[in-house]
Design a protein that fits this description.
Keywords: DNA-binding. This is IS605 OrfB family transposase. InterPro entries: Cas12f1-like_TNB (IPR010095). The chain is α+β, with helices and mostly antiparallel strands. The protein folds into two domains: 52-131, no CATH class; 142-292, Ribonuclease H-like superfamily/Ribonuclease H (Nucleotidyltransferase, domain 5). Helix content is 42%, strand content 23%. The chain has eleven helices and eleven strands. It has a five-stranded mixed β-sheet with strand order 9-8-7-10-11, with helices on both faces. The longest helix has 22 residues, at 183-204. It is globular, with a radius of gyration of 24 Å.
Length: 297
């Protein structure tokens, strides 16, 4: 009770705060000379950063896949019908334009018809991005002659290649460093890592097996870790690396399957680490690969 009362007192004294527009830019008004002497300039930049993006959710009901924005194919015009006025925006999509037009032409209430639009303000102009549900593709990889299993960690990916009998034919450790990197630098690093993983799958013509991780549970565990460990975990984009790997796999026609991650590290450590001469994480990736091939350990 004493500890809980102390926590409540601390929250009242130092309430939790959220900063929209990046905390780094918010603090810059007190640390950068250009903003210390010119608060109006800081305010303009801060409000721009805070309000520069808007997401309009799509719906498969309706003719255009979105209730607010309607993309006219014949005139290449985006139409926004507001309460007081209608706005016409001339627009030209380049990447995956054919797929976007195909989605717009789908019949009302067809699964996959919903189109989400993202608006980004870049000072002098708007950038409009369309987010679509991609159709399923035939893959060029199989599990008949083995798979590639990966174990994702804070600073590296442990990778194991197996044959048709579930035995190891190759291992690899792919290192990366995300700490003290900007968001763009992290994204570039993760893309390079995903490219290397998918290239190995293509080289061996094998399906990629990954863990179906529960990130909510993993983040809940952070409260019991040391501060140094939490700093590393919070900087590690668990979800982002899986997204980049699956995105790359889709482009390269590589099949990806998720398996239950329960006890993979423990089984790998007790059953395969010493007998196979593997590290803890490589042993875990081996268990993940075998689980993807429906072998029981």
């Amino acid at each position: 009770m004493k500890r809980k009362k102390q926590e409540i007192a601390n929250y009242k004294k130092h309430p939790k705060q959220i900063c929209f527009g990046s905390s780094k830019l918010f603090k810059a008004q007190y640390t950068k000379e250009e903003y210390i002497n010119n608060h109006q300039k800081w305010r303009e930049n801060y409000l721009h950063q805070r309000n520069k993006q808007m997401i309009i959710q799509g719906r498969r009901q309706g003719k255009y896949g979105n209730n607010l924005f309607k993309y006219e194919l014949d005139s290449n015009t985006m139409i926004y019908r507001g309460i007081n006025e209608t706005i016409y925006l001339p627009i030209q999509f380049y990447y995956q334009k054919e797929l976007l037009e195909e989605k717009v032409k789908l019949i009302h209430n067809t699964p996959g018809k919903a189109i989400c639009y993202v608006l980004e303000l870049s000072r002098d102009y708007f950038i409009i991005k369309a987010i679509l549900e991609l159709p399923e593709k035939e893959t060029t990889t199989t599990k008949a002659e083995g798979v590639v299993g990966i174990d994702i960690n804070v600073d590296h990916i442990a990778l194991t290649v197996t044959n048709e009998h579930g035995n190891i034919i190759g291992t690899k450790k792919i290192n990366y460093r995300l700490k003290r990197k900007t968001s763009n630098q992290r994204l570039w690093i993760l893309r390079e890592v995903s490219k290397e993983v998918i290239n190995i799958c293509k080289q061996h013509q094998k399906t990629l097996i990954i863990e179906n991780l529960n990130f909510t549970y993993k983040k809940q565990q952070m409260k019991y870790n040391k501060k140094r460990v939490n700093e590393v975990l919070s900087n590690f984009a668990y979800t982002k690396i899986i997204e980049t790997i699956e995105s790359r796999a889709y482009k390269e026609d590589v099949a990806v399957e998720r398996v239950n991650p329960a006890y993979t590290s423990k089984i790998g450590k007790e059953k395969y680490q010493q007998s196979k001469g593997l590290s803890t994480h490589l042993a875990a990736s081996y268990v993940i690969a075998r689980r993807g091939m429906s072998f029981s350990d």
